[in-house]
Design a protein that fits this description.
By secondary structure, this protein is α+β, with helices and mostly antiparallel strands. Helices cover 48% and strands 13% of the residues. A 6-stranded antiparallel β-sheet has the order 7-8-9-10-12-11. Strands 1-4 form a two-stranded antiparallel ribbon. Strands 2-3 form a two-stranded antiparallel sheet.
């Protein structure tokens, strides 16, 4: 269906914009968002996966598929293209935001701000693009429902978790609408406050201890990832996930990585280029990441000073967003720039080294960022594992804050309303889509069994 953008004048008074949002309910009732029934023309999900795989490194696809077959949630993580096509067939409010595009519970996490303060935020933007706000909310809520089903928590828990996501999103969006725009823009989620809010004392104490340890460790470099040798610094080899690019007989990937790290500097603000030029590129390695990203080109660059200070950056291929066929193509001139622009809009604390490559005559477009610190990332995973309802609230609040930076919080808040109609609709969709995901996952397993898809034995 055509994607209609409902334009609201963002400088009008809050009350008027809230009423404008309420008026959209007459065109697109909130109850319609509960609907999920696969269309008779719905594409075969396995065919969509195979098609997206054609644009990836073939030798890595078995790793991707092996991770997806582990559970319905593992499948959902790698099925962003499938769900994008499905969401495009659902009713839409027409209220656009800078969307994550692959918004599920594992794409939120903890990282350090440039000042070293741990913050919690959306942390994956490979599929980011302007799109209806409810597409992200639906995918996030569905991810909790799918995860609850995978954990055998029951249908009631799945529905309640999805409803918790929508409730937290709606309430926080309305709070942000009442703030001074500058205060709303600057709002961030401090991880220490998150952990202190955990009711379970034992879990809270354990999480606080891990947070202190991880924060201290993050200031001490990357001892598990790099090592000093006679020839200088190098990235430790951990096959098949991290493999060296230097010294290979075929140096194509090494040249792509080194050229990419050099050309990316052109996208940095002058002062950050000055900072990065104080380091030299010492080593590059190939890295397999995530679930949805497996098969795209990704390299780690180890930068070092003559005094042995080190910095790890990640260069990652950016392909067209899975939303592009349904929400329209990006206005950015290359896909790496699209990812960077989306991340800068959605995240409160920008990555100091975020930029994109400028390859003349090369259609492989990439972006560069600080390599994520896995020690800090585990803090959010701990909370999700032990306190899923609390984590659902946290993700809903975080998504609202991210969306409010690019959209009209008052209008979206007015559309959602003060009652539970929107929450109930999102929960209904999430439960129905969780069932769809399990059906698609079983089709995927059959495709592996038949040999149509190679998941590496």
């Amino acid at each position: 269906m055509p994607l209609e953008h409902r334009r609201i004048d963002s400088v009008r008074p809050i009350a008027e914009r809230r009423l404008a949002g309420q008026a959209i309910r007459k065109i697109v009732p909130r109850s319609l968002h509960a609907a999920w029934t696969p269309s008779p023309t719905r594409r075969d999900p396995v065919a969509i996966l195979i098609e997206t795989g054609r644009h990836r490194i073939a030798s890595l696809l078995p790793i991707r598929y092996d991770r997806m077959r582990a559970s319905p949630f593992g499948f959902l993580r790698g099925a962003a293209a499938i769900m994008a096509a499905d969401l495009a067939m659902t009713p839409t409010s027409g209220l656009l935001v800078q969307a994550c595009g692959d918004c599920h519970l594992a794409n939120f996490g903890t990282f350090a701000s440039p000042e070293g303060i741990p913050v919690f935020d959306v942390n994956d933007f490979d599929e980011t693009l302007p799109a209806p706000f409810e597409w992200d909310v639906k995918r996030l809520a569905a991810s909790f429902a799918v995860d609850a089903t995978s954990r055998h928590l029951g249908a009631r828990a799945a529905r309640q978790l999805a409803r918790t996501v929508a409730l937290a999103y709606r309430m926080h969006m309305q709070q942000l609408a009442r703030l001074d725009p500058l205060m709303s823009w600057r709002s961030r989620i401090d991880v220490t406050n998150i952990v202190n809010g955990i009711e379970n004392e034992k879990l809270r104490d354990r999480a606080l201890k891990r947070l202190r340890t991880a924060t201290d460790a993050s200031h001490n470099g990357y001892p598990k990832l790099i090592e000093r040798t006679r020839g200088g610094w190098r990235i430790k080899e951990k096959p098949p996930l991290v493999t060296p690019l230097s010294g290979q007989a075929d140096d194509t990937h090494e040249r792509v990585a080194r050229t990419g790290f050099e050309s990316y500097k052109l996208s940095l603000p002058e002062e950050r280029r000055i900072l990065l030029d104080r380091y030299e590129l010492a080593d590059v390695a190939f890295k397999v990441v995530g679930v949805g990203s497996v098969g795209t080109f990704c390299a780690i660059g180890l930068f070092a000073t003559k005094d042995d200070h080190t910095l790890l950056l990640q260069l990652k291929e950016a392909q067209a967003s899975v939303l592009a066929d349904f929400a329209g193509p990006s206005l950015s001139r290359n896909q790496g720039q699209r990812v960077v622009v989306g991340q800068r809009i959605m995240q409160t604390v920008p990555d100091l080294f975020l930029g994109w490559t400028e390859h003349s005559g090369d259609d492989q477009q990439c972006y560069v960022r600080h390599l994520k610190d896995s020690r800090l990332a585990l803090i959010g995973a701990d909370v999700a594992e032990a306190a899923l309802p609390y984590y659902a609230t946290l993700c809903g609040v975080t998504l609202a804050r991210a969306h409010a930076r690019s959209a009209d919080a008052a209008c979206i808040g007015g559309y959602m309303g003060s009652g539970g109609a929107f929450d109930a609709a999102i929960a209904g969709f999430a439960v129905a889509y969780a069932a769809q995901t399990e059906t698609d996952w079983r089709l995927f397993l059959e495709a592996i069994k038949s040999g149509m898809i190679d998941a590496g034995g």
